[in-house]
């Protein structure tokens, strides 16, 4: 254990809610009677097994620097009492506000709190801060999640996978080592109460998140939260952000910066937190800093699709370019939420470019630094019936050897004739001699669901523009260097991993030529059985599959199978939860089937199936 300014202690506590429900919590804090600020991480993940490794490094480190770090399982999850609901619903937020009030009144807390979260928990932290602005002094939000649609199109790459995991997490039982013999009755009650939020998820648009306190946001480029982070910077004068070369999550390298943030807002210490650039970002090869966002060093440069960018796709008698893509366009998109696995990154885009209409620039005479949110404005030919079309734009860097590297992309469902596609926020350096390539398609499967018809759309290049956020090459002259020093964290707990004898490929694509069918199967790396120091054994497996016929948009289907087994061999406890979500569509509806099986010692104790039809 590294040496820290404060000696610390750890204890498991039960936090009472106004209705008598008790939430499981783990508390790390400095020893002694002096009250200190508290940091709350309130999450539906299970603190006794799923997050135990990262909790055991991050929270003792915060405690060693003078904070009471509290990790709480939400209602009906992990070892907490009650019935599980949907993260972020009214009950969840009311419980979180009660937890904040309870912590603020403890003798070891001085009444000032900071909130910490990753993904859905980060979004919840922002909502909770808006409910308790007098108590919550600051928030650290890592990769805050948005809605389930992208430019109006329903997500396929992430929605049903997250839904499957949400059902499985809510269906897992309390641990008898922590809750005693009552675990089984609590488990069966949980199972009976489950109701997947399919209708709300399929119908929901983008999430609106209030920002009421100072926020330090962290994300990795490529994470879907980056555009939200830049908007947060633009709208909140007390927000700072770091966007780096990291996967989804809160990177350890950023922890010292979060501590400076806490010390400034919760202790009133002069840490220089506000003197740092408002945005620190990794641009391909180095760190850069922007004192404000939007940055005066980033200007919008416009590229006409019949000028600086050109395609070879127009005939002499028609000024319009027709875009109609095969239904498997998008198979090389990479992971929607990159988690650091080798197969997460999108591969060479030449195959995708061949399924799209591409507009290329001339070779760049000098390097080009890009930082921000690009837009593509398209003039579309009016369609009979005026129905919406799916517009997909990818920005790539084409190297002299033909390699095509994906920089960013965006999707929009629009009826035209004028459409503006917002691409995802990104940062990159394009070398001299390389070309910019804008690729347009009418499909992006399996990121988003295909439109009901496949007629595509027609674009007038003379009235269409790509706008790029170009950073001045001399912007860093005279500026202090930006760097991050990893902290000295405690050693992780000794969790033994038994890897499977045969591992599935992370990303496997099969083209059945005779059936004109494309199938993709994803299996996250890192599978295997984990044995924790207290004897708990956890095994988790996930397989996600997609299929589509090349010329049939309504053939698209997605399925995720998820299984979690928890075992304590010393007391003969052995439970398994198996979930499956299948999603398909017809011309008017999305059709889902969610299945759940729960087993104890190999025998089925609960099974249920939910079916939903939701209008497109």
3D structure, described in words:
By secondary structure, the protein is an alpha+beta fold. 17% of the residues lie in helices and 38% in strands. The chain is built from 10 helices and 33 strands. The strands form 6 sheets. Strands 1-2-4-3-5-6-9-10-11-12 form a 10-stranded mixed β-sheet, sandwiched between helices. Strands 25, 26, 27, 28, 29, 30, 31, 32 and 33 form a 9-stranded antiparallel β-sheet that branches. A hairpin with a 2-residue loop joins strand 7 and strand 8. The relative contact order is 0.12.
- Give the number of DSSP strands: 33
Q: Which stretches are poorly predicted, pLDDT < 50 over at least 5 residues? A: none
Level of helix content?
10-25%
Class per helix and strand makeup: alpha+beta
Measured on Cα atoms, how large is the radius of gyration? Answer: 25 Å
Envelope shape: globular
Number of helices: 10
Strand content: 35-45%
Average pLDDT over all residues = 92
Distance between the termini: 54 Å
Strand order of the largest sheet: 1-2-4-3-5-6-9-10-11-12
User: How does the major sheet shape up?
Assistant: 10 strands, mixed
